[in-house]
Design brief:
The chain is mainly alpha-helical and 260 residues long. Helix content is 86%, strand content 0%.
């Protein structure tokens, strides 16, 4: 076997020194700016990350913990505020639907039902044979009319849109014509002219009723659209706040992880 070359003991002394790595790192930090000025120099992959990590490592631990705590608390407050605002918006939308639009929809549906009942009672008044039954039928018609007028007044007091007011004005106009013709039909029935009353009912009163019912149906459809639109708007705002909450939570977690 060939004899091995003698090992230089000074080499081990240099390698075994504890501060060798620290000195090498110090020299690399000194030489890196000089190498960066050399034409065609490309920094090694991960150099920027290493620089940021070194800068982050120089932050004192107490300040780092304070920054992480502040980041997490800020994220929590923003998330809580966004969630509270979204819930408030949903609550206002539900309140509008429950206290205004749904109530208006029920009221106008009752008015439409009363119109059909009045029309049926008018036909019934032509078929009864005794004056007492006829008077009782006219009394029921009068009660239905008063109830319908009260509901229309209550509906009108809660109308908040221009389209709703325009539809209600058309209903009022058709109502005036309907009751004028209805009074003429009732007068003929009381006078014993049942045939003339039936002819006017079929030729004039029923078309006037159908016109009023059509306007009521248009107003009901508008109220339904308001309900659907309010629900859709609330859901859209809720989706926006949900996206904001997720984005803020991810950003806060990323910043806290970077500081850590």
């Amino acid at each position: 076997r060939r004899p091995q070359a003698p090992i230089n003991p000074s080499f081990h002394r240099v390698i075994d020194r504890p501060n060798f790595c620290a000195r090498a790192h110090h020299f690399r930090r000194i030489l890196r700016p000089l190498r960066a000025q050399t034409p065609g120099y490309r920094p090694p992959v991960g150099a920027a990350l290493e620089t940021r990590m070194l800068s982050n490592a120089r932050i004192p631990i107490d300040r780092k913990l304070a920054l992480i705590y502040a980041t997490l608390m800020t994220t929590l407050l923003v998330v809580a505020g966004a969630a509270f605002t979204a819930l408030q918006n949903l609550e206002r939308g539900a309140e509008r639907v429950a206290t205004r639009y749904a109530q208006q929809l029920d009221t106008i549906s009752d008015v439409q039902m009363l119109m059909f009942r009045i029309s049926l009672e008018a036909r019934h008044a032509m078929l009864v044979e005794t004056p007492e039954a006829r008077d009782a039928t006219f009394a029921r018609i009068g009660q239905f009319r008063e109830e319908m007028l009260r509901k229309l007044e209550a509906f009108e007091s809660r109308v908040s849109t221009e389209q709703g007011r325009a539809s209600l004005a058309r209903i009022r106009e058709a109502e005036t014509l309907f009751w004028r013709l209805g009074g003429e039909v009732v007068g003929k029935i009381q006078a014993g002219d049942v045939r003339g009353a039936f002819t006017q009912l079929e030729g004039e009163l029923v078309p006037a009723r159908d016109t009023m019912v059509r306007h009521i149906a248009e107003l009901r459809q508008w109220q339904q659209q308001l309900v659907v639109q309010t629900v859709e708007d609330s859901m859209t705002v809720a989706d926006r706040y949900k996206t904001l909450v997720v984005a803020v939570a991810v950003l806060g977690a990323a910043v806290a992880a970077w500081l850590a």
